[in-house]
Amino acid sequence: PSLCTVIVSMFAISSRTTLRTCTRMSQARYAGTVTNVTDATWETVVNQGSAQQIVLVDFTAKWCNPCQLLTPTLEKLAKLEEITLAKYDIDESSEMAETFGVHSIPAVFAFSNGRAISKFVGALQEPEVQRFIQSAKEQANDTKTQE
Q: Has 22 been annotated as catalytic?
């Protein structure tokens, strides 16, 4: 059983309270974390994860030197900004890279509500990546406000 099911059965909590608790738990699940994502895990990590917060997807490869230079910056800012960084190795999976037209790496996409809302290509410096994340957060908030 899921943790939410256990909470309900142990404490006889109403389903409304449980829904709020489970939503908070799922929001916190990936906040500020770095995780690997593949075509098989895309739905959970990116589409569902970005329903609650920004998810950055870093299309990368082990052999890519600019990717390796960008990684520490992305990891640091993901933790600082409490967002998910999902690393997608194009040598291990390729379907989503093709779907989003990734032809050069590193390519970093910001996702909100399962949709790519912005991207950059290349190894940017930390202040530029910070501005990218802030802009993506603002876009995500604007989109949620309009819905």
A: no
Tens-place pLDDT, residues 26-84: 444 556 889 999 999 999 999 999 998 999 999 999 999 999 999 999 999 999 999 99
Radius of gyration of the chain from Cα atoms? 17
Question: What single DSSP character describes residue 83?
Answer: -
- C-alpha to C-alpha distance for 38 and 57, rounded to whole angstroms: 11
User: Which residue of the set 46, 67, 110, 136 is catalytic?
Assistant: 67
Closest CA to 29 of 8, 9, 10, 44: 44
Place of tokens 């449980």: 18
| Catalytically annotated residue among 45, 46, 64, 96 | 64
| Catalytic-residue membership of 67 | yes
- Predicted TM-score (pTM) of the model is 0.78
Contacts with 95 (C-beta within 8 Å, 6 or more apart), sequence order: 39
Residue 121 burial (CB count, 10 A): 15
* DSSP label at residue 51: G
